[in-house]
Amino acid sequence: MSRTDPVKVKICGLTDEDAVEAALEAGADFLGVVFFDKSPRGLSPLRAAEILQWVPEEVRKVGLFVEPDDALLNEVMNQVRLDFFQLHGAETPERVEQVRQEFGMPVIKAVGISAAADLDAAAAYAEVADWLMFDAKAPAGASRPGGNAQAFDWSILKDRKWPCPWFLAGGLTEANVAEAIRLSGAKAVDVSSGVESAPGVKDADLIAKFIAAAKGK
Ligand SMILES: O=C(O)c1ccccc1N[C@@H]1O[C@H](COP(=O)(O)O)[C@@H](O)[C@H]1O
């Protein structure tokens, strides 16, 4: 990625064909589908395969999991054409490495952040993951570790160097994404709640506005 490349955008938690089409039309670089039963965006492997079937090769398809066992990863791998696994739970660095080796899939590891000290903990994952994702820590009592529309102080990322590429996530919207990019130095962003009209229901207009704001158009 050169300094002048437009920011890459991942639209996560897609649940139907209309949302996939809206994200493609608006220029999304990554599309995410969720394999986590407690999420309002959760899909079966079969349904995920259906909604992603016409996505062009160059748009990267990401499967999001929370502490998945090998059986679930196998089931999804056998049915859905994915380019990345996103591990969004309390997986250890050892488990990240094991998943990469066993499944031969690049891994995006999400790390919950509420303060600068959490970035130190993320360093262990930077050695084993292909990408990192900095997401806000879930609020106490939340039923899921992400997708909660929570943001954190983006400026703590500024000037930190990482050996792998990374996404900024958590509470991003059309209204704040440009500022989040400016303050954090992010070259890739990820959004779910901020482009929805209700949990699990993507809004084509919000997707287009988010991508335009992130890419500075
Ligand atoms: O979207 C979910 O339901 C979800 C469930 C479990 C783990 C992560 C989840 N979402 C991811 O969280 C970040 C931030 O989301 P948001 O924009 O704040 O809603 C993003 O990667 C989502 O895909």
In short:
The protein is of the alpha/beta class and 217 residues long. The chain is 32% helix and 21% strand.
Describe this protein's structure.
It is a single chain. Strands 7-6-5-4-3-2-1-8 form an eight-stranded parallel β-sheet. It has a two-stranded antiparallel ribbon with strand order 9-10. Helix 1 runs parallel beside helix 7 (204-215). The protein is of the alpha/beta class. The longest helix is centred in the C-terminal third of the chain and has 12 residues, at 204-215. It has seven helices and ten strands. The protein starts with 7 loop residues before the first strand and ends with a helix. 42% of the residues are buried. The protein has helices spanning 17-26, 45-52, 70-79, 93-103, 116-126, 177-184, 204-215; strands at residues 8-11, 30-35, 60-65, 84-87, 107-113, 131-136, 166-168, 188-191, 196-198, 201-202. The mean pLDDT is 96. The chain has one domain: Aldolase class I (TIM Barrel, Alpha-Beta Barrel), CATH 3.20.20.70. The ligand O=C(O)c1ccccc1N[C@@H]1O[C@H](COP(=O)(O)O)[C@@H](O)[C@H]1O binds next to strand 2 and strand 8.
